[in-house]
Amino acid sequence: MTDKPITHITNIVIPFFDVDSLQIAWHGHYVKYFEVARCELLDKIGYNYYAMAQSGYMWPVVDLQIKYIKPASFGQIIEVYSQVIEYQNRLKISYQIFDKATGQKLSKGQTTQLAVTLHNHELQFISPKILIQKIEGFHHD
Q1: What SS3 class is residue 12?
Q2: Please, what is the average pLDDT of the chain?
Q3: Which end of the chain is more exposed for a tag (fewer CB within 10 A), N or C?
Q4: Residue 2, Cβ neighbours under 10 Å: how many?
């Protein structure tokens, strides 16, 4: 892997339409917060979903884990820290969600994605060279 982990911080303001009658973010929206962070992280390494498709692959999420620690609420600004933790045989990204104002951890989790060829939907058991090149050639800011 690169000399230091590839990470990204995404700020999200919890919108009104994500909360329940108690103004608490519905648990299912955390998947969306992970997705927003993952898209920004993939943009950062130069291999976003458009680039994946152009290279002949789709990368479906095959595993998702979330641990809820403390709820997020309407108007709260959260920071989603995303980090590539594995990429040789699958793309695994970890997430930690913090309250921006206090630094308190609200949630953590991870997603696992596998490469599948677009032309015949064949599962790849080793990550395509393009992903490995993007990650190993990544230059940190």
Answers
A1: strand
A2: 95
A3: C
A4: 14
